[in-house]
Amino acid sequence: MNQFNQFGQPVGEELLDWQPRQHPERVELKGHYCSLTPLRPEHAAALFAAYQLAEDTRSWTWLLREPDANPEAFTAWVESVCELADPMHFTVIDNRTNAPVGTLALMRIDPKNGVIEVGHVHFSPLLSRTPMSTEAQYLLMRYVFDELGYRRFEWKCNSLNEPSRRAALRLGFQYEGRFRQALVVKGHNRDTDWFSIIDTEWKALDRAFQNWLAADNFSADGKQLRSLENWRKEFS
Description:
8-stranded mixed sheet, 6 helices
């Protein structure tokens, strides 16, 4: 609710107890289907092999980088980013096989204002369209909201990246608008679409994720019985 200053101007809700939040740390985040661990050079060979399982390189289209030509080049990239504080890259580990199957990162980290973004999402065929892919996103959200106490979790993508737009909406992000001509990527214009989840929405989303990820929400052959969107509607 907006409040007003001495001039009668609206100045927004006062946050009396607000304090800057902690910067994320290189933590291990354990889930039922997968776990997140800080990206390390020893993950590179398995990650490169997992990405090579794709029929083509379309999963690289929306990334800022071109595909690496060989494991050595990919390892060099991992070594160049794995110690960065922002973006902070995590490897997704399949709990059944203990194998690295994809990566994602926390980025544009703003502890002063309690704002953080998920990005650099690159899931291999071993991870895409599985419960693990949803749980990986959930583990980061839970860390950001429950452990770090951030107010806002962002998702941004190329406005033409329809799979990413659908994923954001499925996960409960709210569409906020389009930044036109925001970037030049690989010689092409990029309009960027913005999505977010804020802290007041998290409790209901958390319950929806927990119910969707529960073992009894899946049939014996691994098919979901109720969609995440359906669970979200129940708790909204």
